[in-house]
Specification:
Largest sheet of chain A: 5 strands, antiparallel
Number of strands of chain B: 34
Distance between the termini of chain A: 50 Å
Distance between the termini of chain B: 57 Å
Oligomer: heterodimer
Shape of chain B: elongated
Number of strands of chain A: 13
Largest sheet of chain B: 9 strands, mixed
Helix content of chain A: 25-40%
Strand content of chain A: 15-25%
Number of helices of chain B: 42
Number of helices of chain A: 7
Largest interface: A-B, 103 and 116 residues
Chain lengths: 318, 1174
């Protein structure tokens, strides 16, 4: 028997629902969107508004000259306070730049320098090629401005820490120093990046565990930004003593070690102090957008409802 | 392999379909041969004749082996052949080039293998499919090649595999077995060396055919005698002509002229004969069966070609984009990155390299997976056709069969149907109904078959000199090629290739002229108890050129008589001029018969002088046995013997219409499909059938074009609602270039065209003419060998598996068992598949553009450096994993309206064509995908512009933005599939949300593999970070919702204010379902419960008269009648609304096609079309 089997699937009679977009479905959906969006929007706007941010641009500073900016905080920055540096017009996402690194090397395999060309090796005086560690254009152009914050009145330095400003996975799994107790010995057979003044093993002289590839500033720099205007975390406020609740209102003095040249390519630099909310830093866009779309939906819903009630002829009326 | 086993195998395990499968599958034609043995031994030049020494290994030359191979590939040839085939597609070449370009260091923005891997995956799927199909063929070949048969060797019958049979071998075939090669019948177990064979594998005809051994070899009926036989065969070289064979058998200097009648073809089966001995003449790929297997012409659907054009268009867009972006890179290099010291030496680029980079970056604008998606979708769509229980014919146990899946959507585009008449519109079950003898009509229209005692009376009282009534009845019983088969219960069954002949023989036997036996040289007729032998001297067969057949016979009395029957125009030309009166009356009868739609034949006879006959006979044998055959002389001799005939009369045979033919044709007309009838029959019969099958109604003007001059008589300007009837002999003129305007202005404007007296090639010419002139999709439907040409010429060929064998079906693209299944095939499957396929294609383009154009927006922020915003592997898997399934599901499970609605309102068919793949709609979708990609990128950008996205103050980076955007894209694209779907089924929902889930799962795993596997270093930890960001989740709700909300609102407004016919229908469906559960179909149980056809199963909408009135007055209005009138700028709309308000198709509504103006309730149930269910 060649008789086909009858089943819903074979006979194309699967249970189904036809989503016809008539008033009966469109209007409730639009209202539903506005009902969801408006509260979420309010929530997000509140979150964004709760974030305090202070940004100071220091493009007036001269390279390698001491540079001081005064920061006046009018209202207390309560909670955790983070410090960022910002760069503008800086294409960390340039294709050739972004791939000019070797993640294997960053795991401690110093000789892995492929992909880093031309920043992969130097010919030493003896003529032998020496691998650059860390290799590549990203490492070579590592940001090296330093910031120190003092209370203007007491001239006391505000204590900052680099703990917890980078991703956990980065510090734990992605960046590993080469084995050996003596870091500088481990880096001995490699060459520091051409633009660097100090060897990678000396990035943090105070704390060798913050040196080499595991240096927090280095890790921060190596997580490349998505856009040509970006911020990168610098430090976090240590919350003790008078900083228990955050950064109190007052006048602060910012000492900038200004080493990083950006003028040639029209770059801009800034220093940012910011608190966070559950949604992160200050960005009112999402909240406002939620409110805007929610509002539009409410309006549209009302208009449609009006049209529906005034002109709509439901089939039942026939 | 034991003989016993083989025996069982043969009888049970070799199903009839194996051999026709050879025909269907791409068999080895000489050019495409890749097979091992046969190819190498195949003669390169055309073999004109061959000389065979029987029963010896020593042949004059080497012949082809009997091993056959239908495989496309072998282990060595697989790769080159497969690749060759694949790279015939432009898109595959394109992706290969991309994959190669990616190997150039430092050019590819997405690494080296991100095109190669998905491309290989897709190629692997194709390769697996090919290997699977080829293995199936190989297994079949192996089985066939290893069948055993008996070969004479050293005076013994030895078992040998088929593949080892050689030309010249003498083999023995036993009852019920299949012939392993083309063999010349030497002798058989029956008297006179008779053998009965069944050739259904060759031509689909299940009737027995008779073959007879040459007189010179009949006596060699033992193996000893055979061993001593010194025989040689001289015959023509292998060819594909199944009905012709010419050669000479030479046994001990006795010559015998061999004809097709002595040749047993490979694939045929021995029946009712204990055994036969035969000499092998053509083996393996020389056998006529294999010579005849050819690949059907590869047809491509309109959509396929359009898609290809779109792809080419996108290719140029891609090139343009790459150039523009290359320019952008230059501008950035000069103005922005000039002194970017941090880039240092790496910033140096050149224009050409940049263009290449962008070319690779945007390559996915051309959807890599589209081909595979479409193949998959079409495969299953074909499955729906094969599995449709409403296209299954209980009586013949035949389901519909999609022989190709490439044309599924073409079924939804049909604008012309060219239908055959006999066996397609009509049942091809012939009944002898009436006859006219010597100007007197016998029989009536009312009886099912002939029942008029007067004829028998007149026969008994026939005292005229000529005994014309006797001759008339004798002719009916003698002049044919029927083989009687006595069944076990004593009843005689008549087997014949022509149902008309069977009808006449049955008619004669009911009138007392019983055809009893067919022996090789005579037939026995029992005339009212008296058995008379008629020695058949010659049978001149019927063919479509001669349009007549003759039998030359003599009785024991020695009188030679020629009996001829044939088409009236042929016969009347051949009768003596002295019978004016009788001929005139019969002509009147003939036209009466034709008007009733009967098939008519004229009968005549001639007595021959014995000497004249002998002389003619000699000349005739000489002409027929000449190698090669002297066709011209044969025709002349045949003509000579068939002149000066005495006219006997005419017969009328009724061929009833198939079920639901008028209903089907009316539905097609409503669907705006023009139905043309192309038939070999005469004008009157053709027009009559056209009328009764609702093609022509009495109100329309009918113009008949019988002569060339008629063409000029028709003034296009005066025409309005008219039909044409065109004769076969003016086809050449109509087609000719000079009448191009006539074709365009008149022929194509006719509501229907009936072409009569058509030869098979003329049918094909008409099809081609319409294709060329209208540029529309033409579907041909037919059932006989004479329809093969037109079926192959049409865009879509549909074969009816009916009475006339399988030839039409096996050369068709789709085969169905009943004409009325065409309605379902087109209106349901065609419309659905078209709608689905278009959706799949548009959606595939949409999702690719939507994702990959984001790279363009990102380029503005990445200095046109070619950096991707997404990780390379997530891009690569977009098409093959994360969004692979929603389009497939759309293609398989979407359904614009219920099948029943399609059938009730065939007008929707045309409306769905308008939803087609036009430039406008394609442009709309492109614009839509650009808009979506803009929204998706910039919303994500604005949300993540401040990269502090966590309460813990961390900062995201490149892939935080990229993966978020990617997630939003995947969600949007998957949900867009839901928005585009006309129906939501559980499976669609599962796959859409499952796709989204698959991305999350992939991302979580991918974020963890580094450094264990050295990929995805950049992705390390991204998933965890991303999913711990509240902003990401807030964006996940926001971005897709906003992106789709606009589509949603536009669609909603459109549905409410300017509803499409489809929207209105769905609203009506819902309304109806609410009113009463008319459309609910229970599952489980009888197949009838699946029947949602308003014509064959009207019970589900059984309505009373008052309900019907209500239904009619219950005009469905769109929701915003008054508003939409305010905005109504769309002229089409009123028409659409009229469609909805038109009464639905119902059973019986077309009962009388003459009452065209179908008003519900005023249906006239004409007796003639009372169907079994009314």
């Amino acid at each position: 028997m060649n008789k086909p089997k009858s089943s819903r699937l074979r006979q194309q009679k699967l249970q189904s629902w036809e989503p016809t977009l008539t008033a009966n479905t469109v209007i409730p959906t639009i209202f539903l969107v506005s009902v969801v969006f408006i509260p979420v929007g309010i929530f997000l706007v509140l979150a964004s508004n709760s974030v305090k941010e202070y940004s100071v641009s220091y493009d007036d500073c001269v390279i390698d000259q001491p540079c001081i900016h005064t920061i006046i905080i009018n209202e207390e920055f309560s909670g955790d306070v983070y410090f960022y540096y910002g760069l503008k017009n800086y294409y960390q996402n340039h294709r050739r730049y972004l791939k000019s690194r070797n993640d294997k090397q960053l795991l401690g395999n110093l000789e892995s320098v492929s992909e880093c060309e031309p920043y992969h090796q130097v010919n030493s005086t003896s003529g032998a090629a020496q691998a650059i560690a860390p290799c590549g254009a990203i490492a070579n152009s590592m940001f090296n401005d330093t910031f120190k914050l003092y209370e203007a009145t007491t001239n006391q330095e505000v204590k900052l820490t680099y703990d917890g400003i980078v991703w956990d996975v980065d510090i734990k799994e992605k960046f590993k120093n080469p084995p050996g107790d003596d870091l500088c010995a481990a880096f001995q057979n490699t060459h520091k990046p051409l633009n660097w003044i100090i060897s990678p093993c000396q990035l943090d002289r105070a704390n060798s565990s913050n040196s080499g590839f595991q240096n927090v500033d280095f890790i921060v720099w190596m997580r490349t930004a998505a856009l040509p205007t970006f911020r990168k975390p610098y430090r976090k406020l240590i919350r003790n003593g008078s900083y228990q609740n955050g950064l109190p209102a007052g006048t602060y003095r910012l000492e900038i070690g200004n080493h990083y040249p950006v003028k040639s390519f029209n770059g801009k630099k800034s220093f940012i102090i910011s608190t966070t909310s559950w949604a992160g830093g200050q960005n009112s866009f999402l909240g406002v957008a939620y409110l805007f779309v929610g509002g539009i939906c409410l309006l549209l819903g009302l208009i449609f409802l009006f049209i529906h009630l005034k002109y709509g002829q439901s089939h039942k009326e026939d | 392999m034991s003989y016993r086993w083989q025996n069982i195998f043969w009888r049970n395990a070799l199903p009839d379909y194996i051999l026709p499968d050879f025909i269907r599958y791409r068999l080895l034609t000489t050019e495409s041969t890749s097979s091992t043995t046969s190819a190498s031994t195949m003669p390169q030049h055309r073999e004109v004749s061959r000389h065979i020494k029987v029963n010896t290994e020593l042949q004059t030359r080497k012949f082809c082996s009997n091993e056959i191979s239908t495989c496309k590939y072998n282990a060595i040839s697989f790769l080159p052949r497969f690749l060759l085939e694949q790279f015939r597609r432009y898109s595959n070449i394109f992706f290969l080039v991309i994959a190669l370009l990616q190997q150039i260091p430092d050019v590819s923005p997405t690494g080296r293998y991100t095109t190669a891997v998905p491309f290989l995956m897709i190629m692997a799927i194709s390769a697996i499919k090919e290997i699977f199909e080829d293995l199936k063929r190989r297994r079949m070949d192996y089985i066939v090649n290893n069948y055993l048969t008996l070969v004479l060797k050293d005076k013994e019958w030895k078992e040998k595999e088929w593949k080892n049979i050689k030309v010249g071998d003498i083999i023995k075939i036993i009852d019920g077995h299949v012939f392993p090669a083309d063999i010349v019948l030497l002798t058989s177990s029956e008297h006179h060396g008779l053998a009965y064979i069944e050739t259904s594998n060759l031509d689909g005809e299940t009737n027995l055919k008779i073959r007879q051994a040459p007189k010179v070899s009949v006596e060699y009926n033992t193996k000893e005698k055979l061993e001593d036989m010194q025989a040689e065969i001289e015959c023509e070289g292998p060819n594909k002509n199944i009905s012709n064979f010419a050669g000479t058998l030479l046994i001990h200097n006795n010559k015998y002229a061999l004809k097709a009648n002595e040749l047993l073809l490979r694939g045929a089966r021995l029946k009712n004969t204990a055994w036969v001995y035969g000499a092998v003449v053509y083996t393996g790929h020389d056998a006529k069966l294999l010579r005849n297997s050819k690949t059907a012409p590869l047809k491509r659907s309109t959509i396929d070609m359009l898609t290809n054009n779109r792809i080419i268009f996108l290719f140029f867009v891609l090139v343009a984009l790459a150039l523009v972006c290359g320019g952008g890179a230059k501008i950035y290099d000069i103005f922005y990155l000039n002194d970017a010291w941090y880039l240092g030496k790496i910033a140096e680029t050149n224009f050409a390299w940049n263009v290449l980079t962008f070319f690779i970056l945007y390559n996915n604008l051309i959807p890599i997976s589209l081909q595979v998606t479409l193949e998959l979708v079409r495969f299953f769509q074909a499955g729906y056709i094969n599995q449709d229980i409403q296209m299954y014919d209980e009586e013949s146990d035949t389901a519909a069969n999609a022989r190709t899946s490439n044309l599924n959507e073409e079924l939804g585009q049909v604008q012309y149907i060219m239908t055959d008449k006999t066996g397609t519109l009509t049942r091809n079950i012939m009944k002898f109904k009436k006859c006219s003898v010597q100007g007197i009509n016998y029989g009536n229209d009312e009886d099912d078959s002939f029942r008029d005692g007067k004829l028998v009376e007149d026969f008994k009282n026939d005292n005229s000199d000529n005994k014309l009534v006797t001759h008339f009845l004798t002719l009916m019983a003698v002049c044919h090629t029927i083989v009687p088969e006595e069944k076990e219960d004593g009843k005689v069954e008549y087997h014949g290739s022509s149902p008309d002949e069977s009808a006449l023989v049955r008619g004669a036997s009911r009138l007392g002229f019983i055809f009893e036996t067919r022996a090789p040289d005579h037939v026995v007729i029992k005339k009212h108890g008296e058995e008379i032998k008629y020695y058949i001297d010659h049978t001149i067969d019927f063919d479509s050129d001669r349009k007549r057949m003759s039998v030359i016979c003599h009785t024991d009395e020695g009188k030679y008589i020629v009996y001829t029957k044939g088409a009236d125009n042929v016969i009347l030309k051949r009768v003596k001029k002295d019978q004016v009166e009788a001929v005139k009356k019969s002509e009147q009868h003939l036209s009466d018969y034709a008007e009733k739609g009967y098939r008519t034949l004229c009968l005549c006879y001639r007595t021959l002088d014995a000497d004249f006959y002998k002389e003619w006979s000699e000349k005739y044998s000489k002409a027929t046995t000449a190698v090669p055959k002297d066709e011209k002389a044969v025709a002349e001799l045949e003509n000579e013997i068939e002149t000066d005939m005495i006219f006997l009369g005419a017969t009328a045979i009724e061929d009833k219409l198939q079920d639901y033919v008028p209903e089907t044709i009316m539905a097609m007309k409503k669907a705006d499909i023009k139905v043309w009838m192309l038939t070999g029959d005469k004008k009157e019969t053709a027009i009559n059938i056209a009328q009764s099958s609702a093609l022509i109604d009495s109100k329309t003007q009918l113009h008949i074009i019988q002569h060339k001059n008629d063409i000029y008589k028709i003034k296009p300007s005066q025409l309005n609602n008219f039909t044409l009837a065109i004769s076969g002999n003016v086809v050449k003129d109509v087609i000719s270039a000079e009448h191009k305007t006539f074709v365009n202005d008149v022929v194509l404007k006719a509501t229907t065209v009936v072409c009569y007296r058509m030869t098979p090639s003329q049918k094909a010419e008409i099809v081609e003419m319409v294709q060329k002139a209208s540029n529309d999709v033409v579907l041909s439907v037919g059932d006989g060998a004479n329809d093969v040409a037109m079926i192959q010429a049409a865009n879509v060929g549909v074969g009816i598996t009916g009475q006339e064998g399988l030839q039409a079906a096996s050369s068709s693209d789709y085969s169905i068992a009943q004409f009325h299944f065409l309605r379902r095939l087109l209106l349901v499957h065609g419309a659905f598949n078209h709608d689905r396929t278009v959706k799949v294609i548009l959606y595939s383009f949409y999702k690719n553009i939507c994702l990959y154009i984001i790279e363009l927006w990102f380029a503005f922020f990445s200095a046109f450096s070619g950096q991707t915003i997404f990780d390379r592997w997530t891009i690569a898997l977009f098409n093959v994993v994360f969004t692979a399934f929603p389009p497939v599901m759309l293609g398989l499970f979407d359904r614009p309206v219920k099948a029943r609605t399609m059938l009730e309102y065939p007008q929707l068919y045309r409306k769905f064509q308008e939803r087609a793949f036009s430039n406008r709609i394609f442009a709309l979708w492109i614009a839509l995908s650009l808009w979506h990609s803009l929204l998706l990128f910039f919303l994500t950008y604005l949300i993540m512009e401040n990269s502090i996205l966590w309460e813990s103050g961390e900062v995201g980076g490149w892939l935080m933005l990229g993966c978020s955007a990617y997630t939003y894209v995947v969600v949007t694209v998957c949900l867009k599939a839901l928005l585009e779907a006309d129906t939501w089924t559980a499976i669609l929902l599962v796959f859409c949300f499952g796709s989204i889930l698959s991305w999350f799962i992939f991302m979580i795993i991918y974020s963890e593999v580094w450094p264990w596997i050295s990929i995805g270093a950049d992705m390390k930890g991204v998933a965890g970070m991303m999913m711990s960001s509240g902003t990401f989740w807030a964006g996940l709700i926001f971005v897709p919702t906003v992106t789709l909300l606009i589509d949603f609102i536009i669609k909603g407004v459109q549905t409410s204010l300017f509803p499409s016919p489809r929207d209105l229908m769905v609203m009506k469906e819902k309304e109806d379902a609410k009113k009463k559960n008319v459309h609910t179909i229970r599952v489980r149980g009888d197949s009838d419960e699946y029947n949602d056809d308003p014509i064959t199963n009207p019970t589900t909408t059984e309505t009373t008269a008052s309900e019907r009135d209500q239904l009619r007055n219950n005009k469905i209005k769109p929701e915003y009648g008054s508003v939409s009138q305010l905005f109504n700028s769309n002229g089409l709309e009123n028409e659409d609304r009229a469609l909805i308000n038109s009464p639905p198709v119902e059973n019986g509504a077309y009962a009388n096609p003459v009452m065209e103006d179908v008003e519900l309730g005023t249906v006239d149930h004409s007796a003639r079309f009372n169907k079994r269910n009314t």
